[in-house]
Write a structure and sequence with these properties.
alpha+beta, Beta Polymerase, domain 2, six-stranded mixed β-sheet, 11 helices, 48% helix, elongated
Amino acid sequence: VADWAREREDVRALLVVGSQARANVPADRWSDLDVVLIVDDPEPYAEHPSWIREFGQPVLTFLEDTPVGQRERRVLYESGEDVDFPLFSVTALELLEQSENAAHLLARGYRVLIDRIALAERLARVAAASEQPPPPTQRDFTQLASDFWYHALWAAKKLRRGEVFTAKGCLDGYMKARLVTLLEWHARAIDPSVDTWHDGRFLERWADPGALAALEKAFAHYDVRDVARALWQTIDLWQGLEEETASRLGFELVLDHSDLRGRVTEVVPDPRHGATL
């Protein structure tokens, strides 16, 4: 890729990020390759993918949005390698510099392969600005808990109506994402120096072992009774973590768990105790 880029005047910089550039948790045989292209105009690279054939025979390719509002071309090659090419214009680099996600990513490691715009200095400043997420406030904690319990009842109502797919999507998608955030707060409440990564990455390395064991049973099959079972399994896991995390952080438990559990029970009784829908 670097040899190809050196021949193109419109490629202003090229860098490798992600697992192939990380010092800790380095790449393994399952890792992809993330190659950031900084070019004069990303549009031709996004809309006309013929250039990806310079690096091998593609099996498939598609475009995807990045967290900082740009696009990346993702490619699976015949050799089995999957490569992501985030596409940035020089003017869009400011978005990268202002992104907290980018700061965390760069702090884990990067390799500059081509630099015609003094990019290395800018990246070093961004990486140096990366910090551990601040601990949650009481308001953050109550907001997250309210969000979870609201959607627990919402999913129960959808399930009771017979919308199994929608209920399962909420339970195993939206609610589990809230649970991951609580697991992060719980882990850092025990050890403030622990690296909780982002979006559940390497969850099995940093989350509480007991919570992980419970999480194994908290996902549902596409079946009305099993979604009900997994909903209550998730509620139990959440409540235990909520109470312990609040205690460790010195927070007040604002929500009435008994009342909230009763509201869910009125809609979807816990089938683990012999109730039927």
